[in-house]
Amino acid sequence: MEWTSLNDLRESYLKFFESKGHLLHKSYSLVPENDKTLLLIVAGMAPLKKYFTGELTPPRRRMTTCQKCIRTNDIENVGYTARHGTFFEMLGNFSFGDYFKEEALPWAWEYLTEVLKIPEEKLWPSVYEKDDEAYSIWKDKIGVREDHIVRLGKEDNFWELGAGACGPCSEIYFDRGEKYGCGKPTCKPGCDCDRYMEIWNNVFSQFESDGEGHYTELKSKNIDTGMGLERLACVMQGVDNMFEVDTIQNILKAISDRAKVKYKDNPKSDVSLRIIADHSRASAFLIGDGVMPSNEGRGYVLRRLLRRACRHGRLLGIEGAFLGDIIEVVAHENLTAYPELTEKLDYIKKIAVMEEERFDATVESGMNVLDQLTAEAKKNGKDKTRN
Ligand code: GLY
């Protein structure tokens, strides 16, 4: 396996599935269309939900995308760990009543072992504990060693996203090596430690969930896969986490140059650098998709991201508006796949900088109030002493 850039990985995956008859569709907007169940797109299959349930007819029964996603449920952890982030891209190949597990699993294996040349012994498939069919595809059709296939329960190997298509899944884990492990003899995929990293989830979407625990069999059997691009890049670049992946590293470098601090010199400034890197990516894409900072819904998500980034800029000692310049680097790093970020750059920067200025003004007026209160408290304290 060879070091491969994030941008090249995206292209290679999409080309591979195009060569298998899939229609390549560019990423859908982060803002869900005609779907009130989601605030933002959180998975590659989310914009395609109605193709799975048969409510809409897809342009082709095989599609492939690299989808922009934002997950903010762990936002408080972003920066404090190197593992968390809000914005990521998800590679996916989808079958709407076309191929099923017999094709999906061998193709996933072919891509990883023949195109990317990841050594087979580094890969571990998991299957839903009752899915003998998937187990036998891995063992007999693909030829994976039996002691490298694990059966896991519903918690790990059943995928659903609120209401919509769902089903049992088969994941592929990458073994990062003993140094990441807990050392227990039982350590294998599914273990809580960091040794086995899930890289690809192949969902056999054959049920429709009403989001309240009721499942009905779908008319057709579908495939929905999801592989985090940044995670795959970590594997292919031999780095620990997404902040060390080439494109994100370049964004982080622009922030550290601006703040005149070095990444990995000080854990406290590292937190701020990671927060700004992640949040400026997410904000650039959200604004590009038409979201405006506001006090509710997705506008509030954006406001929070921008303001957290600003605050951490100030903590790093950066003076004046800086987010626009960082967003310019985000657009540059994404030029090949998302030229629209560069096309809309002036607009995106303007919205970000306006929010940054509003934030500064709020902080300043807050500081003035605080100064006033402190002065009054001092005065009252003195008065009291006098009395
Ligand atoms: N839809 C499959 C996944 O996101 O893991």
How would you summarize what this structure contains?
With 387 residues, the protein is of the alpha+beta class. It contains 12 helices and 9 strands.
Could you explain the architecture of this structure?
- The protein has 387 residues and is α+β, with helices and mostly antiparallel strands.
- It has 2 domains: 6-237, 2-Layer Sandwich (BirA Bifunctional Protein, domain 2), CATH 3.30.930; 245-373, no CATH class.
- Helices cover 44% and strands 18% of the residues.
- The chain has helices at residues 6-19, 49-53, 101-115, 132-142, 154-157, 229-237, 246-259, 267-288, 297-315, 323-333, 339-343, 345-386, and strands at residues 23-24, 62-70, 87-95, 123-128, 150-152, 158-159, 164-175, 196-209, 215-228.
- Strands 1, 2, 3, 4, 5, 6, 7, 8 and 9 form a 9-stranded mixed beta sheet that branches.
- Strand 8 and strand 9 (215-228) form a beta hairpin.
- The longest helix is centred in the C-terminal third of the chain and has 42 residues, at 345-386.
- The protein is globular, with a radius of gyration of 24 Å.
- The termini are far apart.
- The structure holds glycine (GLY).
- Residues 43-45, 159, 201, 203, 224, 226 line the site of glycine.
Structural class category: alpha+beta
Name the shape in a single word.
Answer: globular
- Tell me the fraction of residues in β-strands, as a range: 15-25%
Stretches with pLDDT under 50, minimum 5 residues: none
> CATH homologous superfamily of the largest domain - what is it?
Bira Bifunctional Protein, Domain 2
User: What's the architecture of the largest domain, going by CATH?
Assistant: 2-Layer Sandwich
CATH class of the largest domain: Alpha Beta
- Run of helices and strands: HEHEEHEHEHEEEEHHHHHHH
Mean pLDDT: 92
The hetero compounds bound to this protein are: glycine
